[in-house]
Specification:
75% helix, 2 domains, globular, single chain, 24 helices
């Protein structure tokens, strides 16, 4: 059974191992291009990057020794990988609990005499093996990326690899426990993602508000980032490692207890069915007779949560614009970045950082939408829809329209909050530029949704990992192309590059038409592919 459970993680392992390997290799290889080869240039690079890092604590932990390759890789590569493997933990734990139960794999294992406790341990061990392989591959590529410049020491690199693995396993154990509390794949995804988001928020508050430092020790993200073995003179924090191990053991034990107390395909706190069914009083809203409205209604809590995140991030980014711009005014490279296109540096910060953050949030929302389409297949919802009967192309069209409306709603919320916050803080924004930068986010997000629709039509169970890895790879190409000097055709493979910087430099029309073409071709190809495959296949 352990071997089969490991096979269930093979695609996630391959995808995320590739993402981790690309990240660590490219960051190590790009260091010389970014920092230069002399001690003076590296010191100047370290100071400028430290000044910038101090203003974006919501993305990366505080850096150390950015004048060294090992310090830069530890911060820029392994810092961001915590968020990457957290997404993997959510998807893997959801599939291990709810996905396997909905496919009745758990029924088969229990019927063959496997105990529930052994089943929980086997799933943890299988993911542990898969995540260890991914972490080791990432460590190997980190060494390869730095080998031509300043090879990373084997001991510190092994310690960093172990820390990443333990963090990934802790995230899986926590999401595995959260999945016991709900009854559906969609609910497990929301529970796991919500839990890790709250834990990450504790660390962000710790980075920005010193009085909350002790509260952050409730979070595995904190335990991961207090160790810095790659930094010259760094160390592995024993307390952080012990707390991480304790969470893995404790969450696994609680998951085994919860699994023993609940029924299959039911939540831990499932309410008993009423003796007599109550009739609905009143008729449902006429809007719910529209398929698109039903799709949006099912996602109402997710839309509300994402809108809240967009609101908070937009207000936060605008609120720190003046302090950030003033603090980096003496750094020529950063100031040149903010005034590119000849614009105001405050507007440049909002255009570069808020709209960049909005792209990441909307890409994440697109991945969630696609994951719900895959869940409809595994949960039998798609089969029920087709038995109405209904055309498959019509269901796909409804998904596309719902995606357009959902993304447009989030974009509108974020843009309105941005404009209102900027006006309140006295920061002038060009209304026309804000509008064009905002509506272009709709085709940007739909590009991921269209590619995800194709993947869902072929590989519904692997769609989250495939699309998440693709989105991250697209972001890395956009980030590293200027440093690595890659040709323009490589840079244009990134959707982030196709979007451009419309608030500062105007609409990238070629990029816009490319995104529209991807959306049209993607959903069209998905409609064709759905016609020829078996449901839940």
């Amino acid at each position: 059974m352990l071997r089969y459970a490991f096979r269930l993680h093979r695609w996630g392992m391959i995808g995320y191992a590739a993402v981790i390997a690309i990240t660590t290799y490219l960051q190590g290889a790009a260091y010389v291009q970014a920092a230069g080869a002399t001690a003076a240039s590296r010191a100047a690079f370290g100071r400028s990057m430290s000044a910038l890092a101090a203003q974006i604590p919501y993305l990366l932990p505080p850096p150390r020794r950015l004048d060294t390759l090992s310090g830069y890789v530890g911060w820029r590569a392994y810092g961001v990988l915590a968020l990457v493997v957290a997404a993997w933990a959510v998807a893997a734990a959801t599939g291990a609990v709810r996905g396997d139960e909905e496919r009745q794999l758990v029924d088969t294992w229990l019927a063959s005499g496997v105990s529930r406790a052994r089943l929980v341990l086997a799933r943890l061990a299988a993911f542990g093996a898969a995540s260890l392989i991914a972490a080791v591959v990432g460590g190997a590529f980190a060494w390869l990326g730095s080998a031509a410049v300043d090879p990373l020491a084997a001991g510190p690199l092994a310690a960093q690899t172990l820390l990443l693995w333990l963090f990934t396993l802790a995230g899986f154990a926590l999401c595995f426990l959260a999945a016991q509390l709900v009854a559906t794949t969609r609910g497990a995804q929301m529970a796991g993602a919500g839990l890790l988001f709250v834990l990450y928020l504790l660390v962000v508050l710790d980075r920005t508000h010193a009085p909350l430092a002790q509260l952050a020790w409730l979070s595995p993200f904190k335990w991961y980032e207090v160790s810095d073995p790659l930094v010259p003179g760094g160390r592995v924090d024993a307390a952080g490692v012990l707390l991480t191990a304790a969470v893995i053991i404790g969450a696994t034990a609680l998951s085994a207890l919860a699994f023993a107390r609940r029924d299959l395909r039911a939540s831990l706190f499932a309410r008993p069915a009423p003796a007599t069914a109550r009739e609905r009083e009143g008729s449902p809203s006429p809007l719910l007779s529209w398929p698109v409205a039903r799709l949006l209604y099912r996602e109402r809590l997710v839309l509300l949560g994402w809108a809240l995140i967009m609101t908070l991030m937009a207000a936060f980014m605008v609120s720190i614009a003046r302090s950030v711009v003033d603090s980096v005014a003496s750094v020529p490279a950063l100031r040149a970045f903010l005034v590119r296109g000849g614009g105001d540096p405050y507007q440049g910060f909002i255009g570069g950082f808020w709209f960049g953050t909005a792209q990441l949030l909307l890409a994440g929302f697109a991945v969630h939408l696609v994951s719900t389409w895959g869940a409809d297949d595994t949960e039998g919802i798609l089969a029920a829809e087709l038995s109405a009967p209904r055309h498959r192309w019509a269901i796909l069209a409804e998904r596309a329209v719902a995606a357009v409306l959902g993304v447009a709603l989030l974009v509108a919320v974020g843009s309105l909050v941005t404009a209102a916050s900027a006006a309140a803080s006295g920061t002038g924004l060009d209304a026309t530029a804000v509008f064009q930068a905002s509506w272009l986010l709709v085709p940007f997000a739909l590009t991921f949704a269209a590619v995800g629709a194709v993947a869902d039509a072929e590989w519904p169970r692997a769609v989250v990992g495939l699309l998440g890895g693709l989105a991250f790879a697209s972001f890395m190409v956009f980030e590293l192309s200027p440093l690595m000097g890659w040709p323009s055709w490589v840079t244009n493979l990134s959707v982030f590059q196709l979007y451009g910087s419309p608030l500062l430099t105007g609409i990238n029309w070629n990029g816009l038409w490319a995104m529209v073409a991807i959306v049209v071709v993607g959903f069209g190809a998905a409609a064709v592919l759905m016609q020829r495959r078996e449901v839940a296949g």
